[in-house]
Design a protein that fits this description.
Blueprint lengths: L2 H15 L5 H53 L5
Length: 80
């Protein structure tokens, strides 16, 4: 296959892709892709938010446990 045939095929494909009939279809496809990506982005942000909340709750629980241990150590007398 010569480069002229390839070039002609590329030109033909491009012209078909940007023909007035195919532009609305392409725009709908792009709109759907953008919609899907926005949904994925929202889901990713929600997952990060959930992870952050779990992390914060875990840290709060650990801090409360440490405070309980430290508090009980402070209330002991040296003979215990």
């Amino acid at each position: 296959m010569t480069s002229r045939l390839v070039d002609a095929g590329v030109v033909q494909g491009f012209l078909e892709a940007v023909s007035p009939e195919s532009v609305p279809v392409a725009m709908r496809v792009l709109d759907q892709i953008e919609y899907d990506l926005a949904g994925q982005r929202r889901q990713r942000e929600l997952n990060w938010s959930k992870r952050g909340m779990k992390h914060a709750l875990h840290n709060a629980s650990m801090n409360a446990s440490i405070q309980t241990i430290v508090g009980s150590e402070r209330t002991r007398t040296p003979l215990e």
